[in-house]
Amino acid sequence: MFPVSRCRLGVPTAPSAVLAVALLSSLSRCSHLEPKDPAVSALSSYFGTKTRYEDANPGLLRGPEAPRRDPELLEENCTPVQLVALIRHGTRYPTAKQIRKLRQLHGLLQARAPGEQRTDAAGGRDLGAALATWPLWYADWMDGQLVEKGRQDMRQLAQRLASLFPGLFSRENYGRLQLITSSKHRCVESGAAFLQGLWQHHHPGLLPPDVADMECEPPRINDKLMRFFDHCEKFLTEVERNDTALYHVEAFKTGPEMQNILRKVAATLQVPVDNLNADLIQVAFFTCSFDLAIKDVKSPWCDVFDTDDAKVLEYLNDLKQYWKRGYGYTINSRSSCILFQDIFQQLDKAVDQQKRSQPVSSPVILEFGHAETLLPLLSLMGYFKDKEPLTAYNYKEQMHRKFRSGHIVPYASNLIFVLYHCKNAKTPKEEFRVQMLLNEKVLPSAHSQETVSLYDDLKNHYKDILQSCLTNEECQLPKVNNTSDEL
User: Could you tell me which Pfam families the record lists for this protein (predicted)?
Assistant: First the structure.
């Protein structure tokens, strides 16, 4: 078992000077964004792992705190007794690497010959000039940090889940809440924001105090679970540090689909095509997504591309995720065995306690990680696998692929296991059943397509992974040099 935090979120006592300062501090850091009409771009659903949660879950655009109960969720004769949630951090700033590339592109636009008023080929506005003067507000210190919108993502998710599963997220269960997080600051802060959302659910209208004032330990860091890929030598050697592992990504960058976009963008921005490359095109596309996600602004960067361009750029992003985190190499998914097995150890423990008529010691387990945490696990479980692998050469054939990372792991994405104790109305027989939710929608079983599974049946389906997928063996480098297995 891995160390976890245990929380007790109490009601604040009468205001004191110390508490008042804490509340004011919380207000400055954690206040809700003012509600406003959301900016929507035609490109919104093509941003891959940079997609807003509400664009993958459109019903949330107008009512982000209202629970969306999937009609497939179990109700009659079944009581949820444990919930294990894997949650990707909320919306974040771009990384320092992405910011440097954006500065490079911005510099190209500012270096164009000054003076004459230009128009594009159709006689329209000079988009390059508009972008040269568009505020470049990103700074190196941001480097993937959680933004206020990301905290809001977490608070609202917490409120929806607490409304959906009130028995599990009751105030009485706060003392048994478990939190685990990646060491990355954006994940630690996501866990804290989630707790504040739970606090607000039970104390509506009151500002959430700091986590310390909730009598709650901060989330416990466990990178062996949440960043298992950093601890798997075979993955690091054969994929992460292997220059040829992403062959299809690099080949697609120089392929006809990307080269068409390259020429088109060069003409639109009126810069020499030789000054551009696929990486700069991609960072321009993602800048549209960052402005939209962070500031709720549709910036001129979005006007550089149309939906046909967006589909190609989405495929480029999906290729990277497929070959580095998904089905491209067997080790991508097998490196997540430690996390998969830990989930079932928690479920086993809850089943055993219920059978002994004992209270479940951990009714809610919350684990905060990354897209890179969720994608390998979902691949290990057999989800979103296409008949043919994604390659640099079958873009058109993969237009209707299952593996679309923006639909699977947008910001704040979540994979939830709900364990139910069910009583059969006709017989005294008791059963344990499991439902899985992906981004708050019931996820049918990968092997049966049923929306609910008997717990023993689910374990039996995954018995190979549960019994024989030993992380130390999976991640051990072979004694002879051979290439990674491709699927």
Answer: His_Phos_2
User: Average of pLDDT values for 330-344?
Assistant: 97
Mean pLDDT of the chain: 86
Average pLDDT rounded to a whole number, residues 352-373: 96
CA distance 418 to 414: 13
Classify the phi-psi angles of 88: left when phi > 0, otherwise alpha if psi is within -120 to 50, otherwise beta: beta
Q: Which residues are catalytic?
A: 89
Handedness of CA 407, 408, 414, 415 (dihedral sign): positive
Domains delineated in the chain: 41-474 (3.40.50.1240)
| CA–CA gap between residue 367 and residue 345 (Å, rounded) | 14
**62 has a pLDDT exceeding 80:** no
Residue 432 burial (CB < 10 Å; 0-12/13-18/19+)?
A: buried
What pLDDT score was predicted for residue 173? 87
* Helix (DSSP H) and strand (DSSP E) numbers for the chain: 19, 9
* DSSP output for 311-355: HHHHHHHHHHHHHHTSTTBHHHHHTTHHHHHHHHHHHHHHHHHHH
> What's the rounded Cα separation, in Å, for the pair 96 and 99?
5
Which of these, 291, 317, 319, 316, lies nearest to 303 by C-alpha position? 291
Q: Which pair of structure tokens corresponds to residue 403? A: 């593996």
Rounded-to-integer distance, Cα 66 and Cα 452, Å? 24
What is the 3-state secondary structure of 268-298? HHCCCHHHCCHHHHHHHHHHHHHHHHHHCCC
Query: In DSSP terms, which residues pair with 438 in a beta bridge?
Result: 415, 441
DSSP state of 421: E
In the block, tokens 């690099």 appear at 250
Virtual CA dihedral for 254, 260, 266, 269, nearest 10 degrees?
Answer: -130
183 near 227, Cβ under 8 Å?
Answer: yes
- Give yes or no for residue 117 having a pLDDT over 80: no
User: Quick one: which of 13, 53, 26 has its CA closest to 406?
Assistant: 53
- CA nearest neighbour of 301 among 136, 55, 131, 138: 131
- Which residue shows structure tokens 């807003």? 52
244 by DSSP, 3-state: which? coil
